[in-house]
Write a structure and sequence with these properties.
One of its GO terms (molecular function) is lyase activity. It comes from Cellulomonas pakistanensis. Its cofactor is pyridoxal 5'-phosphate. This is Threonine aldolase. With 351 residues, this protein is α/β, with parallel strands linked by helices. Helix content is 37%, strand content 16%. The protein is built from 13 helices and 11 strands. The protein has 2 domains: 22-255, Type I PLP-dependent aspartate aminotransferase-like (Major domain) (Aspartate Aminotransferase, domain 2, 3-Layer(aba) Sandwich); 260-350, Aspartate Aminotransferase, domain 1 (Alpha-Beta Complex), CATH 3.90.1150. It is globular. It has helices spanning 22-30, 43-56, 68-79, 93-96, 101-104, 122-125, 157-169, 181-188, 230-236, 245-255, 259-279, 303-307, 333-350, and strands at residues 61-65, 84-89, 109-113, 139-146, 173-178, 203-206, 217-221, 285-286, 294-298, 314-317, 322-326. A 7-stranded mixed beta sheet has the order 1-7-6-5-4-2-3, sandwiched between helices. The longest helix has 21 residues, at 259-279.
Length: 351
């Protein structure tokens, strides 16, 4: 066993904790032969365009980047003027987990809205969609939604369409943070374009890392002209890979076939198994819908700390005892069942 980690240990802290899917590693190895042009002028990045157009439509254009934070910052910067602002949920990843990168690096004002389930609505958008033309106020220019949300919930196509229709009527563009778009599509049993292109989303930050690749995401322009200057902005933000073939080759391996769907469906199924197990434990209360690969639950005092001796996971709200458990493409039924047993044991001791 490697002295740095136990390969048999699968935690529930984040799908980022998982390793790299073997099919992705094989794709990286295959892409490693010979010389190809750098900075995206390679056959892998060219082929990636065709792969993603198959999912998102003929107008889609992909710009591979290093990571999800970079994808969000690059996308939002190019969608907005320098004085623009983004309307998003208070729990949005761009607001809570990116160390103010949109503000610090992008210079973007975030106009946040509290939501009970992580999802925006046209009515919630209207809380900040005002003050147009007022030079004293940052000008709303983009509505950003997350699919699946940070609370593990999923927007239906109709919910997204209502937001995009309302936003476009106000002159706003719509960005979708799709770090777990695959899990949302798998949970709804819909193609990814049904949650993006077909319902009016302009730009997607397309995920990969949370669904089994080593590194890399992509900014996906769906509405032509919605990310002006993105090729330059990607370079300015240090998100232009010189050896871009290794990002593109992974995204091709993930999205050309059904690997993205197989991995997402498995992670979702493990989350459903986990939810069913902990719901039967006295004192444990599941707090959100389990639409994708996350389970949120409130635990009795002391239980979370006891469980962390078994598996890593994150507190969501220490004041209320709410925690988040994430499942990944490599989470097994045995992992889930062992953890449910640990939850039951710790809850019984705390009773």
């Amino acid at each position: 066993m490697d002295r740095l980690h136990d390969p048999a240990r699968h935690d529930f802290a984040s799908d980022n904790y998982a390793g790299v899917h073997p099919e992705i590693l094989a794709a990286l190895a295959a892409a490693n032969d010979g010389h190809v042009a750098g900075y995206g002028a390679d056959p892998y990045t060219e082929h990636l365009q065709d792969v993603l157009r198959g999912h998102f439509g003929a107008d889609a254009t992909a710009y591979p980047v290093f990571n999800g934070t970079g994808a969000n910052v690059v996308a939002l910067q190019t969608m907005l003027p320098r004085w623009g602002a983004v309307i998003c949920a208070e729990t949005a990843h761009i607001n809570t987990d990116e160390n103010a990168a949109p503000e610090r690096v992008g210079g973007i004002k975030l106009l946040t809205v509290p939501t009970p389930d992580g999802k925006l609505t046209p009515e919630l958008v209207d809380r900040h969609a005002h003050g147009f033309g007022d030079q004293h106020r940052a000008q709303p220019g983009v509505v950003s939604i997350t699919q699946a949300t940070e609370l593990g919930t999923v927007y239906t196509p109709d919910e997204i369409l209502a937001i995009t229709t309302h936003a476009h009527a106000l002159g706003l563009r719509v960005h979708l943070d799709g770090s777990r778009l695959g899990n949302a599509a798998a949970g709804l049993d819909l193609p990814m374009r049904a949650l993006t292109t077909d319902v009016g989303v302009d730009v997607v930050s397309l995920g990969g890392t949370k669904n089994g690749i080593l590194f890399g995401e992509a900014v996906l322009e769906l509405t032509p002209g919605s990310t002006p200057g993105i090729a330059f902005q990607r370079k300015v933000d240090m998100q232009l890979a010189s050896k871009m073939r290794f990002v593109s080759a992974q995204l091709i391996a993930l999205y050309e076939g059904d690997l993205w769907l197989r991995s997402a469906r498995h992670a979702n199924a493990m989350a459903q198994r986990l939810r069913a197990g902990v719901e039967a434990v006295p004192g444990v209360r599941v707090t959100q819908a389990t639409d994708a690969n996350a389970v949120f639950a409130a635990l009795p005092p002391g239980v979370a700390d006891a469980l962390r001796e078994v598996r890593r996971f994150y507190d969501w709200n220490r004041a209320t005892g709410e925690v988040r458990w994430m499942c990944a493409f490599d989470t097994t039924e045995a992992d889930v069942d062992a953890f449910v047993a640990a939850v039951a044991s710790a809850a019984a001791r705390a009773a």
